[in-house]
Give the backbone structure.
Amino acid sequence: MTMLELSNVTKIYAQGKVHVTALRDVDFRVDSGEFLSIAGPSGSGKTTLLNLIGCLDVPTKGSIVLEGQQLAERSKTQLAKIRRDHLGFVFQSYNLVPVLTAIENVSLPLELMRNMTKKAVRERAERTLTDVGLAEHLHHRPNELSGGQQQRVAIARALVKEPSLILADEPTANLDSETGEAILQLMWT
Amino acid sequence: MAGILTKLAFRNLWRQRRRTILTCLALAFGIYMVIILDSFVGGMTEMAGRNIVQLQTGDVQIQAHAYVDDPTDRSLDHVFAYSDFTDDLRQLDQVSAMTPRLSFAAELHNGMDDYHVRAMGVDPLTDPDVFTTQQYLAGQWLEPGQQQVVVGARVAQLLDLTVSDYVILLTRTANNAFQALDLEVVGILDTPHPEVNLAVYVPLDMAQTSLGLDQAITSLHMTVSGSAKSAYEAISSVVEQQNSTALGAYTWEQAAEDFMVMAQSSRAIHSMLLSMLILIAIVGVVNAILLGAMERTREIGVLKAMGMSEREVTQEFVTEAFGIGFVGSAAGVLLALLTNWFLVEYGINPYGDMDLGAGIPLRGHLYGVWNWTIIAGAFMVGILASVLAGIVPAIRAAGKSPIWALRQ
Amino acid sequence: MKRLVLLMLLLVCNSGSAIAETAEQIMKMVEANVYYGEAYMESDMTIRSGRREMTKTMSIWVQGQNALAEFTNPADRGTKYLKLEDEMWIFFPDAEDLVLISGHMLRQGFMGSDMSYEDMMTTEKLSELYDLELESQEDLDGRPTWVIGATAKEGVDVSYAIRKMWIDQEYHISVREELYAVSGRLLKVSRVEEIDQIAGRNYPVTVVTEDALRRDSSTTLRILHIDFDIDVADGLFSLESLQR
């Protein structure tokens, strides 16, 4: 089943009078359950592509269809809703909310969805954190966790709402190779 | 949902607690000043009003319009015989006491120096029924028909007078001829009304004889009971029945017009203070929210990537503004309540024995008043101004594009 | 400026020595000397109060009931007083302000002196305002005088209810005057300290006024120069001339 389809996606950034073409006529398809890596040198447009798929940005040209929904010409609020309900993000630099504990960070996406009881949210967040091996660190703030632990919280945060698509932008770049390997392993499962 | 936003807001306020506390303190200070200054102004106005009624005008007075229209007129051109009124006024239930006074300009000489004073012929027997003057008297009160004078403390000080000194009161008779009266100082008045302390009091009958005035006076002062308005109207109609168009009944507020104008201007001070308070709130809150949004640009991006809407981000920041407004206002009100309790109970004496000058009819100890409208108002305005001030920077913060925010 | 007028009134007298029988006759002789012609004077006024003392100098033009005085000492230079019949105006050069002296201002001292504006304004003859009585004859500074008591007539507006005057029997000049309050208390004393012959007439040229209620307080008015033979310019006694 097709989960994501890009056709003729072009993104041009205007920097003053200079136009930079970040992506030109990109076409590809991802099926449900697929694990896809995009590789390329720095500046080749990987992040731009992720931003477009992640509904953080809109293409200059072309169409993106996510779970049968055309993303073009949607309002900011509608895009935010799609992100909330269908997408999970894992960033290179974890980007946890510093004032929230691990479990609060993981609960956040569920709370934003507003369709679960407090108790259910808590149980699910706790289970997800346990799944990524952080059962001992539920109530630690990000600054009390190591890089690997933080990224595991970030993955838990992306997984917790069971999204259709998880977008991870160089999730292991800031980690040593051993931890990176463990993280990739985690995402596979 | 609201839970997580509130949690975020308060955690973020706590994260920047130094800034939060400073902003709250500024706001608290503003609230505090508004309440305390209002209490002072209120206390001063109340006290001054009491001084005017008890030492200068009584509740209602009858006098010539000319004297009210031109307070500098110290001539004897508009005197009136009050026996025409007394019977009718005594019939009124509302009038509980009355006393006549004769005000005239004079120079008081001690043999070396002299000083221009307002001299007041008073009926030694009935004056205490209306005025509390005697409470502030050192020495003896006047006796009818005697060549005696009670001098205000300021006059006594300026002319270096003590009880049992002799002075010469130089004035003009109704016929404009100089009249010089040799009087014995029997008492000295140190009242909380500076104008009274610049006046001298003599027995009314002695003054009338010396000035060639027979039974005439310049004003008739009354204490009324019950509704001041109905008493005033009843007295007014008595004056009208006498067909004396030159005379009128005046409430103390009307008679002390200058003071009332001043009291009104304290409202202008209110609005000024309140605008200052609003300004403090706006500057503090706008600063706090803008800085917070700048520092948390990336965080905002993450929240938005996770699907938080602009509205929710805005709400989070406005909640922070509310938090500052609430804590600051509450702290200000609390401090003000404590201080004001002290002011109301014990009062302070900010000017020592000095006159406030500018014709403010009070002196000495100042007490505060409880003005709950202002206290509640300042509290609400503090919160409201903070929230309103937070809205624009919050919307700006929420509008930041998530990609731009994440790239930081 | 009444004092000036009074001065003028006192200034001019013949030196005849008619034997006066009554107070009225004596006052008539004094008043008959009132000179309503024209004159130019230079004079100075020394105001003493306790240890403080200041002197003001002025030029004065007189014509009948009108008079113009212009101060010439540095502190008051340009200040002008104009008496027109029974009105008195002051012009202050610094404020370029023209003020009509009226109401309670009349009771203030003239330029801080012991003479009030009102004292200087009275133009009515004393014999019309007061009941006069010849009280005695006294020698004052070795010269024979008549002592006349004046009591204000009923219902007449005068500043001083009682006056007492010493009239020089030769010069017919009031050389000393005492002013009293209704109560009989002495308020002011003025005395002629110097009489000079100018243009064939006898003039009091130094008059000292003392306030009896203020210790060490006096005003000395001296006439330094008199010129009777003058041409008064048209419009000199007008409000316009004050502001020039």
Summary: Chain A has a mean pLDDT of 87. The longest strand of chain A covers residues 2-15.
